[in-house]
Design goal:
The structure holds 2 protein chains of 2 kinds. Chain A folds into 4 domains: 69-246, no CATH class; 288-364 and 372-396, Fumarate Reductase Iron-sulfur Protein, Chain B, domain 2; 411-557, 3-Layer(aba) Sandwich (Rossmann fold); 572-684, 3-Layer(aba) Sandwich (Rossmann fold). In chain A, 52% of the residues lie in helices and 5% in strands. Chain A contains 28 helices and 11 strands. Chain A has helices at residues 18-46, 56-68, 77-103, 117-147, 163-195, 206-214, 219-243, 251-260, 297-305, 311-315, 317-320, 327-341, 354-357, 361-365, 372-376, 384-396, 402-414, 432-437, 456-460, 465-477, 494-498, 502-519, 529-538, 548-557, 589-596, 633-643, 654-666, 678-684; strands spanning 11-12, 16-17, 441-442, 450-453, 482-484, 523-526, 545-547, 572-576, 602-604, 648-651, 674-677. In chain A, strands 3-5-4-6-7 form a 5-stranded parallel beta sheet, with helices on both faces. Chain A has a 4-stranded parallel beta sheet with strand order 9-8-10-11, sandwiched between helices. In chain A, strands 1-2 form a two-stranded antiparallel ribbon. Chain A is elongated, with a radius of gyration of 31 Å. Chain B is an alpha/beta fold. Chain B has a 9-stranded mixed beta sheet with strand order 9-8-7-10-6-1-4-5-11, with helices on both faces. A two-stranded antiparallel ribbon of chain B has the order 2-3. The chains are: A mainly alpha, B alpha/beta. The interface between A and B is medium-sized, with 31 and 23 residues.
Chain lengths: 687, 261
């Protein structure tokens, strides 16, 4: 024997050519994989349309950063680093795996270009890659199997634990790494024994270690090991390929597509049906998602792509307070239904109403649309649009909780959820003390450059009307010529849209749009992030919209607003990012800049801040909804602020103010901690 | 089963602030928003659920002006199959007996097994159901909070003062007045109403029904409203005034002072 016999020339028992096996395995593997994929794609073909071929530049950027760069992974450091190791290893080893398949048919095959120096460098890198992947798998398996981080737990109502599947796959990956390395090491050990040739190997890599171990093993055993590990690798490789589409590791295949097609515009809700304009909505027979096939193909792809990592639910405020919602299981339950209704063989089952089959009504109403889940998902899976689509379906079927029916009807009749009279919408400006100093223009009779869009809660809630007055004073002192729409203003409808009452939202939008256009203003300012979001992202063709914090930060910068030194310098302030200002619109810095412009103000940061801010409990219609929950989101938030050492929670949203004020009372922290609106803090410090 | 539900268009208590008109004999009705009487929604929902179970159809009926058509459409958007509007200038100013007799005339033209009404209306006297049953000579159950449909008969539950519940077997045809809480009425959105916007709703006047105009309306009314006012604050009653926060503070103070807290 001069050199080791490769799998392409080897004959089992001296007669049966191993090459036949090397051919049969890939043919069966690829054939089976293709069949499975075709069955898996079937529901996507029957799904609703989705427009995901726009903004290719942004999509490619996402592909580079979110998929290839894995930038969301290190948000969970240990799991993130482990994943990046395995992901990078897979990318590197995919080349090796491809050539290995061919080696079974042609001994010593190398991919074009990998013969010389490049090949040596690649081999060096891939040996380390395999080693790192194996180490990562071992750590991951210990973590999943022994330490069992809480976020992977499966509550009883959602089915059985998923640890088995996770550890099984880690085992498969480890098998691939070990068999590939042994295949190479056995050949090199054989050659070393035979000719004394020493190849340079990456020190301490798997191949290096295995070769050292095998250096004195008899040649016939090395020959056997060489062939055995080749086919172990080949079999495992194709088994894994076909196993991927059967569970959470489908993401290995779908992630690249899912990230490419992920949401590129934040803060905006998808249309009822892509390709159907607003004025054609009446022609639609059904609204929203009622059955599985009503989801768009991208939303189905989301279900397939979920890696079950639990980050969404770990960040979800609804899940944190014990509401019956866990975004992770919104996806997992839908995925399992897709697997069940579209089985790998046999007939496709007829879908039932989702809210009776796999979801509950309360589950779908529990979402505050804060967006924490979407911000976190390393795969770009969406939730808000799905929630809205499911709600559209429920609204269309009349399945709306009584607690929400009243405010919705009031919005229809009066343009605000409280059912207050339209003519009282500007009553906040009638406050005696305020009126003595400040006159507010009514744009129905007067003109101005800027519209101050007040929105319902600030217009009508006794407690919150102060925000309207303080916003007005700030605008006046900043020299901005502004007016209000008065009784012509209707609720912005941010939550009406998000609670699935599309036609009512369309109605509010049309009325507001007409009134705004009629007023002839050149810009819009609001102190309500929900109004800000709706006007900026959901409405079309309006003048530019600014949040009051942006105006303040800008006017401080330009010197048009000057702030006094901090009046309560003994207090410790913390800024709470409202979801619709921060996560949905990226306004994190302006409110902080404005606060920091107050000399002597002590400001701390919450651990969960900026894009990881924790929802206070939700705004708009969410204030009326009566959820099942163990505690309030606001209470958790107040406790977080207390832990951060804050005595004043500053927020820039009227709903946050209401929720946090209530939560301070519920948490029994009155006197220790207080809630303050951004406009109040600023107005107090104006000259 | 053929079910008829009597409904009424009323000023919405949740969405209005009531003030007296200058004459002092009624509400100031400018700026009011109207909707279906809340109890009636429960009656219609119950009717739809019964029909879903045993088949048949639901008809909604109201006595009112042209604008009352709006409430019929809303109930049809919920799922009622037909609507009938009884409207005539001669009906205006009818008292409870007058309304009941107008309804009775139309009901006798159909063949309904079950006639439902709300237990009362926001601005009504809760008398139509009972009067209607008497005029039709049908059995009647008031304040019904449970209905079980059986073969040729139904069992209806009534809540009794003190939290007790009684169950009664009642024969068809019959009249029931429905209490809130019997079910959870489904939501009707703008889209639902638009879907039934073009459905034909027959309008019937005194002549169509064969009613002597003099027997109904203001002329036929045997009860007349003579006054309408907000009662004076009585001895021992006190209205707290101010913003919601101030009112709550005052209330807590008072409760504390009286040892209630």
């Amino acid at each position: 024997m001069t050199s080791i016999i490769g799998p392409a020339s080897f004959k089992f028992f001296g007669i049966f050519p191993a090459a036949i096996l090397s051919l049969v395995l890939p043919v069966i593997g690829i054939g089976l994989f293709t069949y499975i994929m075709v069955r898996r794609i079937a529901p996507l073909v029957r799904a609703n349309p989705d427009n995901r071929f726009d903004q290719i530049g942004k999509r490619l950027t996402n592909l580079i950063f979110v998929w290839l760069g894995q930038i969301r992974q290190p948000r969970y450091m240990l799991a993130g680093v482990l994943h990046i190791s395995i992901f990078a290893g897979f990318l590197i080893l995919s080349i090796r795996s491809t050539s290995l398949v061919v080696i079974g048919l042609s001994d010593g095959f190398v991919l074009p270009g990998f013969g010389g120096f490049l090949g040596n460098i690649y081999n060096f890198i891939k040996d380390y890659a395999a080693t790192i992947v194996l180490i990562a798998c071992v750590i991951a398996a210990i973590r999943r199997g022994i330490f069992k981080p809480e976020r992977y737990a499966v509550p009883e109502k959602y089915g059985k634990d998923h640890t088995g599947e996770a550890v099984f796959v880690l085992g498969i990956i480890a098998t691939l790494m070990i068999s590939e390395s042994l295949f190479e090491a056995s050949e090199l050990a054989f050659e070393f024994q035979h000719t004394g040739t020493v190849h340079f190997l990456a020190p301490l890599s798997l191949v290096w270690i295995f070769k050292a171990i095998l250096s004195s093993v008899p040649q016939n055993i090395l020959q056997g090991l060489h062939i055995f590990t080749y086919f172990v690798h080949d079999l495992t490789f194709f088994f894994f390929l076909c196993f991927l589409p059967l569970g959470k590791h489908f993401h290995v295949i779908t992630s690249i597509f899912n990230v490419f097609f992920m949401r590129v515009k934040k803060g905006k809700i998808k249309p009822v049906m892509y390709g159907v304009s607003d004025d054609k909505l009446d022609d639609l027979e059904s609204f929203g998602v009622k059955k599985l096939e009503d989801f768009t193909w991208k939303h189905m792809l989301d279900f397939y792509s979920c890696a079950d990592c639990g980050r969404c639910s770990d960040q979800c405020p609804a899940n944190a307070v014990g509401r019956p919602l866990s975004p992770r299981f919104i996806t997992i339950k839908a995925r399992d239904l897709m697997f069940k209704n579209y089985p790998l063989s046999g007939e496709v089952y007829k879908s039932k109403l989702l809210v009776e089959d796999i979801y509950t009504e309360d589950e779908i109403w529990s979402c505050t649309t804060c967006g924490a889940c979407e911000e976190e998902c390393p795969l770009g899976i969406e939730y808000i649009d799905k929630m809205v689509d499911l709600r559209r379906g429920m609204v269309d079927e009349g399945m709306v909780p009584q607690s929400l029916q009243k405010p919705l009807k009031a919005l229809e009749k009066r343009g605000n959820p409280y059912g207050k009279m339209e003519k009282k919408r500007a009553d906040w400006a009638e406050d005696k003390e305020f009126k003595a100093n400040w006159q507010i223009k009514d744009l129905a009779k007067d003109t101005a450059d800027t519209l101050y869009f007040v929105d319902s809660i600030t217009s009508y809630d006794d407690n919150i009307q102060d925000i309207a007055r303080r916003t007005s004073i700030i605008l006046k002192k900043a020299g901005i010529d502004f007016g209000i729409l008065g009784k012509l203003e209707k609720d912005s409808g941010n939550e009406v849209l998000r609670f699935g009452e599309e036609m009512l939202y369309q109605d509010l939008k049309a009325q507001n749009t007409e009134a705004i256009k009629e007023s002839g203003v050149k810009q819009i300012v609001t102190a309500d992030p929900h109004a800000y979001n709706a006007l900026k992202n959901d409405y079309d063709n309006l003048p530019p919209v600014k949040h009051i914090s942006q105006v303040v930060a800008q006017k401080i910068k330009s010197g048009e607003l000057d702030l006094k030194p901090c009046q309560n310098s003994e207090k410790v302030y913390v800024y709470h990012d409202p979801c619709y200002l921060g996560r949905h619109n990226g306004i994190y810095e302006e409110p902080r800049q404005a606060m920091d412009a107050i000399d002597g103000l002590t400001r701390v940061e919450l651990e969960k801040s900026r894009d990881r801010s924790f929802c206070c409990g939700g705004g708009g219609l969410m204030l009326f909804y009566e959820p099942e929950e163990e505690t309030r989101m606001g209470v958790l938030r107040v406790n977080m602020a207390a832990e951060a050492g804050a005595t004043v929670i500053v927020t820039a949203c009227p709903f946050c103010l209401v929720n946090i004020q209530d939560a301070i009372k519920v948490a029994g922290k009155e006197g220790e901690i207080e809630a303050l609106d951004f406009t109040e803090l600023i107005e107090q410090h104006l000259f | 089963m053929e079910i008829l539900v009597c409904v009424k268009r009323v000023p919405d208590t949740a969405e209005n602030e009531f003030e007296l008109n200058s004459a002092g004999n009624d509400l100031d009705r400018d700026d009011l928003v109207y909707s279906v009487n809340e109890w009636d929604n429960y009656a219609v929902e119950e009717a739809i659920q019964i029909v879903d179970k045993v088949g048949g159809s639901v008809t909604v009926i109201t006595v009112g002006d042209d604008e009352s058509e709006e409430v019929l459409r809303r109930e049809m958007a919920m799922g009622a199959n037909n609507g009938i509007l009884l409207s005539d200038d001669a009906f205006e100013g009818s008292d409870g007996r007058g309304i009941a007799s107008i309804l009775k005339t139309e009901i006798e033209k159909g063949s309904y097994d079950l006639i439902l009404s709300g237990a009362q209306a926001d601005e009504g006297a809760g008398q139509i159901g009972g009067m209607l049953a008497a005029m039709l000579d049908y059995p009647y159950a008031s304040l019904v909070n449970k209905i079980e449909v059986g073969d040729g008969k139904i069992i209806v539950g009534r809540e009794i003062e003190g939290g007790n519940q009684e169950m009664n077997e009642i024969q068809f045809p019959c009249v029931l007045s429905i209490q809130t809480g019997i079910n959870e009425p489904r939501y009707v959105g703008i889209r639902g109403i638009r879907k039934v916007a073009s459905v034909d709703i027959p309008v019937k006047g005194a002549a169509d029904l064969g009613i002597d105009a003099a027997s109904v309306g203001e002329t036929g009314a045997k009860t007349k409203r003579v006054d309408y006012f907000v009662p004076d604050t009585g001895e021992g009653a006190e209205m707290l005034e101010g913003s919601t926060g101030e009112i709550i503070e005052k209330l807590i103070e008072k409760l504390k002072a009286k040892g209630g807290l």
